[in-house]
Amino acid sequence: MAKATKAKDGKETKRSVKTYHNYIGGEWVKSASGDWFENVNPADRSDIVGRFPKSNAEDVDRAVAAAKESATRWRRTPAPRRAEILFKLGEILRENKQRYSEEMTREMGKVLKETGGDVQEAIDCTYYTAGEGRRLHGFTTKAEMPNKYAMCERQPVGICGLITPFNFPMAIPSWKLIPALVCGNTVVIKSGEDVPLSTINLVKACEDAGIPKGVVNVVNGFGEAGAALVGHDDVRLISFTGSTDTGKKIAEQCARDNKIVSLEMGGKNAIIINDDADIDNAVEGSLWGAFGTSGQRCTASSRLVVHKKVYKKFVERLVERVGKLKVGNGLDPKTEVGPVINQQAMDKILGYIEIGKNEDKATLAVGGNALRRGKYKNGFFIEPTVFTDADRNMRISQEEIFGPVTTVIPFSDLDEAIDIVNDVKYGLSSAIYTQDVNKAFYAMQELYTGICYVNSATIGAEVHLPFGGTKGTGNGHREAGTQVLDIFSEWKAIYVDFSGRLQKAQIDEVEV
Predict the structure, then answer these.
(1) Across 428-440, average pLDDT
(2) Is 264 a catalytic residue?
C-alpha cells in the first residue's frame, strides 16, 4: 500500500527506511514536488519497503524531454545492436531473480513462488523479444509497374508512455518496455504506486545493461503523474494496463489528442467443468485460477461453470480444498494465498462478498471474512471465498471483483455453458475441462475470448503467444508474441522505381 508523506530532501525518518528516486535522463533524481510516499508491505503494514518520490507534471516534463533528446540516437542504433543490449538485460534479470522475487513479495504480497514466476516472465519476455532485433520483418511484393520494387518495413512510433498495475510488477512492465525498446522507441514509465520498487529494479537492470541515458525513464507517484504522461504533447503512444474505468478515460484523452493507445483492462473469466471432466484435475485448476495471486489477476477464474451431473461432487471437493488453503505472508514457504494489495482493495472485495450474501440465489459455501487477528492483524487478508448455486446474472457473476472470490454456476448442456461464459462485458480468458476432443474443439471455437485453455485454468499465459481480450477487456491490441510489435511500430511502404521514367500506377497501361 502506498502512503504519501512529506519530507525534506528525502532524508530518512525515525526508522531506517531506504529512499528511492526517479530515473530521468540516466540520473536518479528527486521529484520536483519535494513530496514522498511510503510503500508498505500489504502483509504487515508496520514494514515500510521504501520511500518514493511523489512525482508531478514537472517530473513528467523532464522525463519526456530526456526521452525526446535520446530518441534519434536510439532509433538509429541498428536493431541487432539494440537486441544485444536487451539480451544482456535478460542476463542481469536472471542473475538477480531471487532478490527481485523476495522484494516483490514484500511490496506486493503474492507468494514467493509466484513472484519468482513474475520475474521469470520478464526474463522470458526479454530473451524472446530481443530476438526480434534480428528480424523485425517487413515484406517484399511485386509492384504493378515494370522495373519497380515494392517493400515495407517497421519504424518506431516515438516516445511511449507506459502505465503499469500492481499485480505483475515486473512482468507487465517488461511486456511493454522490451518491445518498445527493440522497435527503437524511447519510453517513460509511470510505475504502479503500490509496487514502485519492482519497476525500479527493472529500470536499474536496464541501466546496468548499458541502455543509453534517456532511452528509459521512470517516474513514481499517483494519478497526477499518470495524467500528465497521458496528456503530454510529445508522447505519441500510451500503453495502459489497469481498471476499465481508468482505461476508458485514457482512451478518451488519447482520441482527443490523436495518440496511439493500447489498453488491457478487466476480465470476468470462467472455467467450464463438463460432465466428463477429470474432477480432481478440475478442482486443482480452479483453486489455482481463482486464488493464485489472491485472485488479483485480470485472468482470474472468478466463475466456475459446472455441469449438473458432476456439480455436487465438484463443489464438495472444491469447498473442502478451499477451506484448507493457508493464508499468510507470502515470504512464508507454507503460505498458499497472500494478502490483497491495500485497504481500498480489501474494502471493495468485502463489499462484493456482502453483495453476494444478500443476493437471493447464491450460497456462501466457504470463506467470506476478513482476517484481522493474530498474525493477520497488520495485513490485508481475506479468506478464500466460494459462492455456490449462483445465477449467471448476479452481480458477483457479472462484475470483476479482483480478489479471492469465485462463484459456481450450474449448467445443463455445453451450449448453455458457453453462453454463460460469453454473457459478460469482458472477453479475456476462458477454459474447459473435458476428456472429449470434439467438445474441446467446439468450445475453443465458440468461446469469445482472447485466450482459451483446455484442461487448465484461465491463468498462465506464455510470452510467445499474443495476450489480450475481446469486448470490454481492451481495444483490440495484443501484448506478448510477435503481435506486440504492431503496437510499438508503424508500417512504412517503400517504392523504388528504377525504370528511368515517370510511371503512373493505376493509370499507365503495361504492355504484355
Answers:
(1) 98
(2) yes
Are both 327 and 178 inside the same structural domain?
no
The CATH number for 278's domain is: 3.40.309.10
Residue keyed to cell 523479444: 129
Give 144's contacts (C-beta < 8 A, 6+ positions apart): 505, 506, 510
DSSP code string of 202-240: HHHHHHHHTPPTTTEEEE--SHHHHHHHHH-TT--EEEE
Whether residue 157 contacts residue 489, with contact meaning beta carbons closer than 8 Å, is answered with: yes
pLDDT computed for residue 16 by the predictor: 85
Map residue 506 onto helix, strand or coil: coil
Catalytic residue among 298, 336, 383, 452: 298
Contact assessment for residue 281 and residue 289, using Cβ atoms and an 8 Å cutoff: no
pLDDT of 214-242, one tens digit each? 999 999 999 999 999 999 999 999 999 99
Q: Which residues form the domain of 383? A: 270-454
Q: What is the pLDDT of residues 60-93, one digit of tens each?
A: 999 999 999 999 999 999 999 999 999 999 999 9
Annotated catalytic residue within 38, 207, 264, 336: 264
| pLDDT for position 3 | 58
Integer Cα distance of 207 and 184 in angstroms: 17
Question: Can you tell me the mean pLDDT for 433-451?
Answer: 98
| Angstrom distance (rounded) from CA 443 to CA 180 | 35
Give the chain's domain count.
2
Count of CA atoms in the C-beta half-sphere (13 A) of 147: 10
- Which residues of 148-254 form beta strands (DSSP E)? 148-156, 159-163, 186-190, 216-219, 237-241
Domain containing residue 179: CATH number: 3.40.605.10
**Which is it for strands 429-433 and 489-497: parallel, antiparallel or unpaired?**
unpaired
- Gap between the Cα atoms of 154 and 152, Å rounded: 7
**pLDDT over 70 at 13, yes or no:** no
Mean of per-residue pLDDT scores for the chain:
96
- The pTM for the full model equals 0.94
Max CA distance (Å), the chain = 88
Are the C-beta atoms of residues 52 and 37 closer than 8 Å to each other? Answer: yes
- Same domain flag for 172 and 280: no
Last residue of a domain, one of 224, 243, 265: 265
